[in-house]
Design goal:
Length: about 110
């Protein structure tokens, strides 16, 4: 069994867990990743949370609790996610394609 340092890349195709440490706002958080390809997404997420929380903290620190600032951050990020998900909704296109396919099949009979 080989020993791997924290944050060191795993061999290609490896199913080993990867231990990483993320800096989120003012705290370091240890994470265990089951898929090493996700590391870049975890790091990008930590950076986004830090940036957005920092922006809210700068405006609302002293007027709102840290908990509320955290929730405001989560709402903003969830809103971005929901908007992006709605852009990727292919249901209307699928319905149109089904209808056109049906019309074409009917015309060919």
């Amino acid at each position: 069994m080989s020993v791997r340092k924290q944050g060191e890349a795993m061999p290609e195709g490896s199913k080993e867990k990867l231990n990483i440490r993320l800096h989120v706002y003012d705290e370091d958080i240890a994470m265990v990743l089951h898929n090493r390809e996700d590391e870049q997404y975890y790091r990008a997420a930590a950076k986004l949370i830090t940036e957005r929380y920092g922006a809210y903290a700068q405006v609302y620190r002293g007027r709102k609790s840290d908990h509320t600032i955290g929730l405001m951050t989560l709402i903003e990020i969830a809103l971005r996610y929901e908007k992006e998900q709605s852009k990727n909704d292919t249901t209307p296109y699928d319905n149109i394609l089904r209808q056109l396919t049906s019309e074409i099949e009917e015309a060919l009979k």
